[in-house]
Amino acid sequence: MIWILLSTALAAGGGWWLEGPEMAERADAVALQSNAEHVGYHARVVKRFHLGEGWEFVTLIEGFGDEAAATAAAKKLTKDGLKLTLVHDPAKGGATRVAVAAPPTAVSATDSSAVLAAARAVNGGPTGGVSALARAAAVHFVFEREFELDGKRVTIAHDYWRDATSRRLKVETHGAGTDSTSVATAGGAWIKVGGKVESRDIGVLITQADAFAPETVLGVALDVDALFATGDALPLLLLEGAESGVRVGRGEDPTEPGLAFADVDPTTGYLLRVRYVTEGGPVSFVLGDWRVIAPGLAAPGSLAVERADGRMEVIRVQRLELADGAPSGTFSAPQNDAGAP
């Protein structure tokens, strides 16, 4: 049985190629590449990363001038159960067969310098991002986290304020748990849970509240300069396989901690996708809805996170702003509700 899937509208002109199925093992994709080259077609294997699935390998069979030529090749190459995707890109009209030698998966590190420079610049460089937040007199950050809790997807709302000496964190669970308000000032620290206020250690409460600061929640997006600062001994390369934008990274899928790759929007310089290896394994981020908060400070409005153990979390930012100070009463000690035990 022959399977040919049309991935775009069929239009006249050149720019046709075939894509093989996504393979978990490079050897399987190479086998299809060898088969295609054996009968005279140009083919190459590319490595792609899919969020939630990991690395996969795809064979591209290229150089067809029209639909008929690509379809004829599919009939020659297809075996029972094998799916070849027929792809048409009018922008590549007039494509002809090229040499069989496949391009490398990574090119000169110097070719990545413009991509890295643009991303660093749009995110404020060494004085932007987290540095800009640290210089602000006050920071207000409102966001939701959606994740799985006890087998159910829940959404938790967070409202975080800070200035040089004080913190306030309000958490609303929408019925998934108990709402709370935490406040820390130079004069004391308190937490209100279930309508009752209890005193807390100031240092401990500040540390707990700052776990929900923008620098922590949006860390990969707000510290772009440090993210790309791998040092001269380990330059970042331009890589193939970007699902969007331009991919820079370390080449082969690394196991040691650090940046594996980042997809950068070539028009804006903002991050679109990041894979980072931690001590606990790789973590993947998908970023979107970027906005400028202040000079040298840009942040995504959405951030999807997948951790090595398969846990998925979505962060949606409602507000991130820098202020000269918090409104009066922001850091006032919470009060017991009437009738609270």
Task: Describe this protein's structure.
The chain is an alpha+beta fold and 341 residues long. The chain has two domains: 3-103, Alpha-Beta Plaits (2-Layer Sandwich); 113-323, outer membrane lipoprotein receptor (LolB), chain A, CATH 2.50.20. The chain has eight helices and 18 strands. The chain has helices spanning 26-38, 67-77, 113-122, 130-135, 202-210, 214-217, 219-222, 224-227; strands spanning 3-6, 16-19, 42-50, 54-64, 83-88, 138-149, 152-163, 167-172, 180-185, 188-193, 196-199, 237-239, 246-249, 258-264, 271-278, 281-294, 297-306, 312-323. Strands 11-10-9-8-7-6-18-17-16-15-14-13-12 form a 13-stranded antiparallel sheet. A five-stranded mixed sheet has the order 1-5-2-4-3. Strand 14 (258-264) and strand 15 (271-278) form a beta hairpin. The chain is elongated. The model is unreliable at 1-14 and 91-110 (pLDDT under 50).
Please report the first level of CATH classification, the CATH class of the largest domain.
Mainly Beta
Radius of gyration: 26 Å
How are the strands of the biggest sheet laid out side by side?
A: 11-10-9-8-7-6-18-17-16-15-14-13-12
Helix content: 10-25%
What is the averaged pLDDT score?
A: 82
Q: What class would the helix/strand composition place it in?
A: alpha+beta
* Overall number of strands: 18
Number of helices: 8
| Sheet of most strands | 13 strands, antiparallel
